[in-house]
């Protein structure tokens, strides 16, 4: 099935740079993605960026229903020819970032209430896709996703799973680990794609979590993280001195058993929450 009639247009299946298209060709990588998703016949899967359908076909084999989103109209025609007769396939043509998936599925009850996302996403909009799927610290997205398995650029994947006091640990690490359990599945080299991108990739599995002892003021937590990582080479108290005096910040950090000379990357997610919850208010 397809939710929108494709316009007549000369077919063109070459990867388009403006859509950040690189076709995954590695059977090994495909197998790892599908295995990480732990699919079963009751799963309703959302796929972002179906491309040529190489991953789509694997998802259709193991899921109750697959909703694939694809922005490229020419690829949509190819996908319809390939999967259009299958009753567990629905194609939404459009830009995922601007698409109201819930609204688009109102007439398709079988495809509503996705419980998993599995996708090889365009690398140039990875951050925006993560924000749409998870929301922000102060405005989390309310969804029913059990897990989200994504093929993304290695640099971003490393940051998602990074531990404190490591080079990759960043504001993104803290924000995402506040919202989800983040695990690295496997590395995927550039040669696994056609054409090969200039960077290597990784598969990550993200599981939205119920936050134990969340920040009392998520807006403040977000502000502290942004300021704290603003200048990585500076000590945290220097990055936060626009909010409180160095003396106040030193006292607070000592109270929380955090070294006053710590940089932002030295604090765990729990440390950030404690800092936010104990931060002096006006």
UniProtKB/TrEMBL annotation:
UniProt keyword rRNA processing, yes or no: yes
Chief place of localization: cytoplasm
EC assignment: 2.1.1.182
Compartment list: Cytoplasm
Reactions catalysed, as given in the entry: adenosine(1518)/adenosine(1519) in 16S rRNA + 4 S-adenosyl-L-methionine = N(6)-dimethyladenosine(1518)/N(6)-dimethyladenosine(1519) in 16S rRNA + 4 S-adenosyl-L-homocysteine + 4 H(+)
Summary of the function given for this chain in its UniProt record: Specifically dimethylates two adjacent adenosines (A1518 and A1519) in the loop of a conserved hairpin near the 3'-end of 16S rRNA in the 30S particle. May play a critical role in biogenesis of 30S subunits.
The protein's name in its UniProt record: Ribosomal RNA small subunit methyltransferase A
Phylogenetic lineage: Bacteria, Bacillati, Cyanobacteriota, Cyanophyceae, Pleurocapsales
Name of the gene: rsmA
